[in-house]
TrEMBL record:
Keywords from the named record: Ribonucleoprotein, Ribosomal protein, RNA-binding, rRNA-binding
Source taxon at top rank: Bacteria
Record-level GO BP terms: translation
Molecular functions (GO terms): rRNA binding; structural constituent of ribosome
Entry similarity comment: Belongs to the universal ribosomal protein uS8 family.
Subunit structure: Part of the 30S ribosomal subunit. Contacts proteins S5 and S12.
Gene that specifies this protein: rpsH
InterPro entries listed in its UniProt record: Ribosomal_uS8, Ribosomal_uS8_sf
Free-text function comment from the UniProt entry: One of the primary rRNA binding proteins, it binds directly to 16S rRNA central domain where it helps coordinate assembly of the platform of the 30S subunit.
One GO CC term, this protein: ribosome
Presence of keyword rRNA-binding: yes
Protein name in UniProt: Small ribosomal subunit protein uS8
Amino acid sequence: MYTDPIADYLTRVRNAIKANHRVVEIPASNLKKEITKVLFEKGYITNYKFEDNDVQGTIKVALKYHPITKIPAIRNIDRASKPGLRKYAGMGNMPRVLNGLGIAIMSTSKGVMTDKEAKQLNVGGEVLCYVY
């Protein structure tokens, strides 16, 4: 049993990218599904599939690489808020990832979204991870 399922999700994606895998399987949860949708919408992954074959189900994520140079679309993916130290951002202090080139995935009262979307909707929340 792991204590931080989001960190496990990010670590599985990070390890699959370093090993140049095309697809990675991750145990599913509602929050992980929402993070996967945000990564797909922003173009960091090629595709995803939710499989409900057992109690929990799995998420199959197709990772995205440049067709010629084989460089992954996700250069770095880091956990921001940890179980021992939660990080929250209000409207006035949204995080900037790589001076605006990356995204911060946030859990807000209106759902899981990027920092830019949260700023447009004028909401704050917990900063889950940084992606660039």
